[in-house]
Amino acid sequence: MKRLVVLVAVATSVLLAGCAGAGSGAPSGSGGPAGTGQPSAAPNASDSGAGASGDTSAQFGGDICSALTKADIEAATYPQGPATFSSTDTQKSADTGKPVVCQYLVTFDGKPSIVGAYIALLDDSEIQHRRQAALFSPLSEAVSGIGTEASVVQAAPGLYEVWVTGTHGKFTVGAQAKATAIALATMAAGRN
C-alpha cells in the first residue's frame, strides 16, 4: 500500500509540474528511447522487479519505451491540446537496475511539459495492491478490448491509469485524460 501512495503522489507531481524542465535525453525522431537521464517524476520504480515470470525486464522485448512510439504519443488527445513528442526518460528498478518506467516527455505549443504519459511494468504484488485500492475508488471500471484484462482508475485528480494484463505481461499506462490513457494502453497492448 505504501508503494501505491508513493505512486499516486509522484504521478500527481508529474501532472502539476506542467512546464518544469526535465533532465532527459535528446529528442528522438524514431519514437524509441532518446536517453535514460536521471529518474524523473513518474511512478516510483524503487521496488519494481520480479513479475509473474520472475523478471519484468523481458516485457516489450526488454525495452519498455518501445511500448509506445512517437506517432502514438502525438496521435493521442490531451487536455492541453496537440502534443509534440520530445523525448523519453526512464526509471530503473533498485533491485535489478533495469528500466521499469518510461515517461514520454512532450511539448504543448512549443512549451516543454512533463505531463505527457508514462508506462510502468508491474509485478504480481503491485497488481494485488492496485486491485485492493480500486475497491475504494468509485471511478474504477473494467475496460474491454485491451489485453486479456484491463481496468481504468482515476489514481489522483487529473491522473488516469489503465492497468493491463496481456501478451506483454502486466503494466500500467498513465495520462491526464481517461480517453488518452485508454487509447495509449490499447496501442501498447497491441504492440508486436
Structure description:
The chain starts with a helix and ends with a helix. The longest helix is centred in the first third of the chain and has 16 residues, at 2-17. It is globular and about 40 Å long. The chain has one domain. It is built from 4 helices and 7 strands; from the N terminus they run ααβββαββββα. It is of the alpha+beta class and 192 residues long. The protein has a 7-stranded antiparallel sheet with strand order 1-2-3-7-6-5-4, sandwiched between helices.
Instruction: Summarize model confidence as the mean pLDDT.
Output: 72
H-E string: HHEEEHEEEEH
How many runs of DSSP E, i.e. beta strands? Answer: 7
Q: Shape, please?
A: globular
Report helical residue fraction: 10-25%
Strand order of the largest sheet: 1-2-3-7-6-5-4
Instruction: Determine the strand fraction and express it as a percent band.
Output: 25-35%
What integer value in Å does the Rg equal? 15 Å
Structural class: alpha+beta
**What's the story with the biggest beta sheet?**
7 strands, antiparallel
Low-confidence stretches: 1-54
State the distance separating the first and last CA atoms: 32 Å
Enumerate how many helices there are, as a single number: 4
Work out the count of structural domains: 1
